Amino acid sequence: MTPQESLKKLSRGTTEIISLADLEAKLKEGRPLVIKAGFDPTAPDIHLGHTVLLRKMKQFQDLGHQVVFLIGDFTAQVGDPTGRNELRKKMSMADIEKNAATYKAQVFKILDPQKTQVVFNSHWLNKLTPQDLLELSAHTTVAQMLARADFKKRFETAKEISLLEFIYPLLQGYDSVHLKADVELGGNDQKFNLLMGRQLQEAYGQKPQVVLMTPLLEGTDGVNKMSKSLGNTIGINDEPDDIFGKIMSISDELMLRYYEILTEADLDAVKKMHPKEAKLQLGQMVVDMFHSPGQGDQVAIAARILSLKASQSLPSVGAKAREHFEKTFSQHQVPENIPEFKIMAGQKLVDILVVTNMAASKNEGRRLIKEKAVTHEGNAVNDENWPLTPGVLKIGKRRFLKLVQT
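Predicted structure:
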C-alpha cells in the first residue's frame, strides 16, 4: 500500500489530523511508526464508543506500525479534567488494577496481541523527581491552562480547579516524550491534551507527534455520546442478541455514521441498500466483530456480509443473531432454546426476574412490571403479586423466560 493509500485509509472516520502533511511525511519514511493511544481505566467494560480508537490502532497495526496501548494507571489517580464541571473523585489503586485487567482482556478482540505493546504510565511517571515535575510545569503557563474551554468555564463560574488538574495534560504529554511517539490517537474532546504532547516533545528536542482525532460515537439514543451512565451503550461483551437488537433500534441516520466509523464497508454500496437491510447487515457485522472466529478482521467481515452469496454460505454468530431477531420481531415468533425456570411455591415474579438476570434489581423488576414491559403469553403483567403461571414471559423487547411447573 502506498503512503497515499495508507493516508486515505487512516483518514476515514477522523475529525481532524494535525497535520495531514506531517502524517504523510512520516508514512513516506518507510519505517514502523510508534502509535500511541492512552486509556484511563476508569470503567471496567468496553463499549463501541471505545472501539473507535481501537479500530484506528488496528489499522496502523495492519500497515506494519508499532502500536502502544497505554493504560494510564498513574494519570487515573489524578483524573482527566476533560469535559468535567467539578473535581473528580480519586480512584483507588485496587479499582484501577481491576479495571486495567478487564481492559487488557477485552482489547484483543480488536487488536493483534502479537503486535501490541501494553504499557502502564506509572512505570515512568512514578520515577519523576520533584525537580523533574518542576521542569515539566515550566513548559506551560496558567494563561494557557485557563484558555482551555472546560477550565475557562469553571473559572468564570467560580468552580474549583485544583493545581493537580493542571498537571494532568502535562503528564499525558510527558507520556509521548517518554515513548517518543510519532502519532497519538484520541477523541476530539482530547485536543488540548494531545497538543500538549506535541508542545512537550518540541521542548524536549523531539519531532512533534502527529495528532489524529476521532469523533465521539453517539449512543443508541442518537444524541449523547455513548456512556454507561446514560444507559445508551452497546458493550462488546454484551450477548449477541442484545448487540443485534440495540443496533436495530438506532436511527437510519445514525446507522450510516456507525458504518463509517465502525466498519470498512463501502459506504456507496451501503447507501444503495434498503435502510432495513443495511441495518440488519450492520447488526450482523458488529456481532461478528466480537463474537465470531477471526473477530477484529473487519475488512474480511465486511466483505463477507456485504456479499449476499457469501453471507448465505457462511453462517456465523451474527447470522444467528439476525435470524433470532427476524423471527422474534418481524415474524413475532418466540425464539427457540429460551431459558427455563421451574416455579416453586412462595416465589414472587420480581424475585424470579432478578435470579434469572432478567432484571438487575428488584426495583428494576418492579419498574418493568409497572411500565407493562413484562408480558405472559402476550398479555401484560400488571401486578408484581401476579400468580405465577407456566408459559413464556417476555421481558422488554429482547428477553424471554419460560416458566415451567415443578
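Summary: The radius of gyration is 24 Å.
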